[in-house]
Amino acid sequence: xxxxxxxxxxxxxxxxxxxxxxxxxxxxxxxxxxxxxxxxxxxxxxxxxxxxxxxxxxxxxxxxxxxxxxxxxxxxxxxxxxxxxxxxxxxxxxxxxxxxxxxxxxxxxxxxxxxxxxxxxxxxxxxxxxxxxxxxxxxxxxxxxxxxxxxxxxxxxxxxxxxxxxxxxxxxxxxxx
Length: 177
Ligand SMILES: [Zn+2]
Hints:
By secondary structure, the protein is an alpha+beta fold. It has one domain (about 15-85, about 95-175). The chain is built from 3 helices and 8 strands, in the order E-E-E-H-E-E-E-E-E-H-H. The strands form 3 sheets. It has a 3-stranded antiparallel sheet. Strand 7 and strand 8 (about 115-120) form a beta hairpin. The protein is globular, with a radius of gyration of 16 Å. The two termini are about 30 Å apart. It binds zinc ion. Zinc ion binds near residues 103, 131 and 132.
């Protein structure tokens, strides 16, 4: 699906479900207390900006993607910018030959922006940047470079590497289900 960069996110109004894949803290559900702005929802047939991302940005973006998983239950997104669709025999989570990142992915990421806003991107944004030369808006690049993945954790949900889990968040561990 396509959403213009920096447009308001309305893909899911079911709230956010956040998993920190680095420490086993899983499926923390909450209603966001922040505004979400779309980044990197690319689709063939819609124009997008290409450019040369700095190595530093690429590396930090991939680290953000590998640390969190938001709304993963919304399903698998497959890149349709790749010239051919993924053969059934190719595991979706394995990069295609010559690529650095898999061309399909589940879920989304959140990156804190200016106060009260976050950027909402599909996990596939890593593939778009490193394998297709997608260049996100400058404010997103700056937000990724400024995102302290290992900074202070909110007291409400220890272990979640995300600063804005609101007070009323419902904490749900996968072990509870
Ligand atoms: Zn692709």
